[in-house]
Structures are given as C-alpha cells and as structure tokens.
Automatic annotation (TrEMBL):
SUPFAM superfamilies in alphabetical order: Metalloproteases ('zincins'), catalytic domain (SSF55486)
InterPro entries reported in the protein's UniProt record: Zincin_1, Zincin_1_sf
Species of origin: Bifidobacterium moraviense
Protein name: Peptidase
Highest taxon above the source species: Bacteria
TM regions (residue ranges): none
C-alpha cells in the first residue's frame, strides 16, 4: 500500500522547518516594524484618493493613479518646467489618464508625517485639476494651505 505525498503547505496546518510549531509572521500586523516607509506612503495616497473620490467620484474614477520611487530621467517634450514630485499623463489611444506620484522626492521635501500628508494632497489635487482644466481650489478649497 502506497501513500501519496502531499506537500506541507497543502495541508490544513503545517509546521516550521524544525517541527516546533505552526508558521506565523515574525511581527504582528499592528506592530510598527511591519510597516515600511513606502507602505505608509502608499496608505497616505490611498487615503487621499478615497477622500477625493467621495467628494468628486466623476473626476477621480476615470484616472489611474500610481506611485513610483523616482521620476524618469527624461522629461516629456511638452513640459517646460518638469515637476519632480508628480506627473500627469493625458488620456490617449484607449489608455486612460494617469497621475504618478514620486515617493522619494516627496519624502525628501518633508520633515514630518503631517507635512507629507499635505504635500500628497496638494500634488493629487493639482494633477487632477490639470487633467480637467480646472483650478485646484475648485476641487479642494484647502489646497495650498
């Protein structure tokens, strides 16, 4: 009688390599070490997009948003003065409009978490306003404060 081998991860509970207990994360999800600076930055961007999406769903939903570490080294030909904190790409040929925030330059501009949240908010509002040809104050009255 031959038994078939099932890998440990296919079973209901599997043990660590030394057989002492079940595998689990080294740190809990609520401990500070679990979060990285890039993860916290992504969460701040998501929170601002949620806030703006609730206020202006028709403006925010058609746009794709992304976060990259650093901007590309070549500015677009139509940009006279490239902004190194964020960039807006207009929609073209079936590709939706995109807004990209650059994490490291934004983090280098700030001293604390509150200032980081304000810069993220201002950059998102400014790029959304740029996409639709509006003033940023129309989208968020607190812009720039």
């Amino acid at each position: 009688m031959r038994q078939s081998f099932t890998p440990p991860w296919m079973g209901k509970v599997y043990r660590n390599t030394h057989g002492r207990g079940t595998r689990r994360p080294m740190f809990g999800t609520r401990l500070p070490r679990y979060r990285t600076r890039s993860g916290m930055f992504d969460d701040m961007v998501a929170a601002q997009l949620k806030r703006l999406g609730q206020a202006w769903p028709e403006l925010v939903q058609p746009i794709q948003f992304a976060v990259e570490d650093v901007p590309a080294s070549d500015p677009s030909p139509w940009e006279d003065e490239p902004n190194m904190l964020s960039r807006a790409f207009p929609a073209s040929h079936g590709i939706p409009a995109r807004i990209v925030l650059y994490r490291l330059p934004i983090q280098m501009e700030t001293r604390d978490r509150t200032e980081l949240q304000f810069i993220i908010r201002d950059e998102l509002v400014a790029r959304i306003a740029e996409q639709y040809g509006r003033r940023p104050e129309e989208i968020d009255p607190d812009w720039g404060l």
